[in-house]
């Protein structure tokens, strides 16, 4: 991947990475279950979750540092030393363990059909905002995904060795854990995609600095995860999961109060509350999904868990971004109209006013694309020369013809100086109006984000109904 000569090669290499990652997560869950006794499973999965939170915490920051100070290609080497160190420890930890092997049969047809379903679902979710949620293409993609899903269920019900044994969902504890895990993926990735935008577009921080500032969200998860795991071992799943939902709801309620002027300590509080809630939900859900399934369903349960988390993450990114952009597109008209009114009511010369208004109207459909920086407005040399020529012509008309030739050079110097001073004032006034427009835009960006956070709050309340599936302290495997 590091030496990928084309975009196609880079994408293909990323596909291979995705396949590897898809294997590692469920396998690591199975290894933990194999190595740890049931009474310590909560603590073990808490540590497992903490390591994942650590990766989320340092990943963006480390990637930003490597990209800024070395080269973006080197970010693909970050995993290599980790793998080199981890592999011997895995061999050592499971020395003496004997795998229970069974004949391997792959449900090829089921795998192909479910791949089609997931591909078109994910693609439709990610492209919905760009192509339009009501576009024919998106309808077709969603329809293909639904049809493929129904076909997959039909195939699996009749397969001798199904890829997914749907009887696993008869386990209410597992079902509750999967639902909460799916929610965790939505909320974590949805929030992580918006907060850097707030920090860079509204607070004007650099991308690298913003990546460090969102660390508290995942750092709190790192701290909370092992603590919650130990609590789960003592009192079971329902109470920790309840507190996870309470903290998550509280975090989103605070995020609804986000403004362009929010101080950093308050922002830390918001992220810490949300990180605590998501950390509890994720650790509890992974523990439930690991312990509650029978031995024959361990690998299947782990695979579904990883798929639910990844699918939730893709949905979260698309959902939060789509909601934010949808409202920003609505607000763009208001911002442009208000900006046009500001220019029209200003004392700026009509020629400059027309250019500024035309430029602003031209951005109506793409106002929020890219960084909202206030560009220094400069009157072009052509326009400056026109102003000087116009003023010169007016001055010469008012002078007696007898002094026109001798006096015109001195008059031109005075007029040029006067016009330059006037142009400087014009540029300052235009920039002041642009700055006001940008301040309005920042407010609208935050307002659009709060709409996405409302969605997160409502989803949290809805998915909290899964608590009814977690009633007992111990779950029979």
Number of strands: 0
Please state the second-level CATH architecture of the largest domain: Up-down Bundle
Broad CATH class of the largest domain: Mainly Alpha
What gap, in angstroms, lies between the N and C termini?
Answer: 42 Å
C-alpha-based Rg, rounded: 30 Å
Number of helices: 14
SSE series: HHHHHHHHHHHHHH
Residues in β-strands, percent: under 5%
SSE-based structural type:
mainly alpha
- For the record, the count of structural domains works out to 3
What can you tell me about this protein's structure?
The protein has 477 residues and is mainly α. The protein folds into 3 domains: 7-94 and 167-326 and 462-469, Up-down Bundle (Growth Hormone, Chain: A), CATH 1.20.1250.20; 107-162; 333-444, no CATH class. The protein contains 14 helices and no strands. The chain has helices at 7-35, 41-69, 79-93, 108-131, 136-158, 172-202, 207-213, 215-235, 238-255, 264-291, 298-344, 350-362, 381-397, 404-463. Helix 1 (7-35) crosses helix 11, helix 2 (41-69) packs antiparallel against helix 8 (215-235) and helix 6 runs antiparallel to helix 10 (264-291). The longest helix has 60 residues, at 404-463. The protein is elongated, with a radius of gyration of 30 Å. The chain starts with 6 loop residues before the first helix and ends in a 14-residue tail after the last helix.
């Amino acid at each position: 991947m590091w030496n990928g000569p084309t975009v196609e090669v880079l994408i293909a290499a990323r596909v291979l990475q995705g396949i590897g990652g898809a294997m590692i997560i469920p396998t690591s869950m199975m290894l933990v279950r194999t190595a740890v006794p049931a009474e310590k499973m909560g603590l073990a999965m808490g540590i497992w979750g903490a390591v994942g939170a650590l990766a989320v915490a340092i990943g963006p920051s480390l990637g930003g540092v490597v990209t800024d100070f070395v080269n973006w290609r080197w970010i693909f080497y970050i995993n290599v030393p980790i793998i080199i160190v981890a592999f011997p420890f895995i061999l050592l930890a499971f020395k003496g363990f004997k795998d229970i092997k069974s004949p391997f049969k792959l449900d090829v047809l089921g795998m192909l059909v479910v791949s089609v379903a997931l591909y078109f679902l994910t693609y439709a979710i990610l492209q919905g905002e760009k192509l339009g949620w009501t576009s024919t293409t998106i309808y077709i993609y969603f329809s293909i995904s639904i049809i493929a899903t129904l076909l997959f269920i039909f195939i699996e019900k009749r397969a001798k060795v199904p890829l997914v044994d749907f009887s696993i969902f008869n386990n209410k504890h597992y079902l509750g854990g999967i639902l909460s895990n799916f929610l965790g993926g939505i909320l974590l990735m949805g929030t992580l995609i918006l907060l850097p935008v707030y920090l860079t577009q509204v607070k004007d921080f650099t991308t690298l600095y913003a990546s460090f500032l969102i660390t508290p969200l995942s750092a709190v998860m790192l701290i909370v995860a092992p603590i919650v795991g130990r609590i789960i071992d003592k009192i079971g799943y329902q109470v920790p999961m309840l507190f996870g939902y309470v903290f998550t709801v509280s975090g989103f309620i605070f995020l609804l109060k986000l403004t362009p002027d929010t101080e950093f300590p308050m922002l830390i509080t918001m992220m810490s509350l949300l990180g605590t809630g998501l950390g509890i939900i994720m650790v509890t859900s992974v523990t439930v999904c690991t312990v509650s399934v029978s031995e024959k369903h361990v690998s299947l349960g782990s695979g579904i868990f990883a798929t639910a988390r990844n699918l939730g993450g893709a949905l979260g990114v698309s959902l939060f971004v789509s909601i934010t952009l949808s409202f920003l597109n609505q607000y763009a008209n208001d911002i442009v109209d208000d900006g046009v009114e500001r220019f029209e009511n200003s004392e700026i010369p009509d020629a400059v006013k027309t250019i500024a208004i035309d430029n602003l109207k031209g951005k109506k459909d793409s106002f929020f694309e890219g960084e909202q920086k206030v560009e220094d407005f400069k009157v072009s040399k052509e326009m400056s020369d026109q102003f000087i020529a116009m003023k010169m012509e007016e001055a010469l008309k008012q002078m007696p013809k007898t002094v026109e030739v001798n006096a015109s050079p001195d008059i031109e110097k005075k007029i040029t100086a006067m016009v330059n001073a006037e142009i400087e004032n014009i540029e300052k006034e235009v920039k002041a109006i642009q700055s006001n427009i940008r301040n309005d835009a920042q407010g609208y960006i935050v307002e659009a984000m709060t709409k996405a956070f409302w969605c997160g709050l409502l989803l949290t309340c809805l998915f909290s109904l899964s608590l009814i599936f977690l009633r007992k302290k111990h779950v029979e495997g």
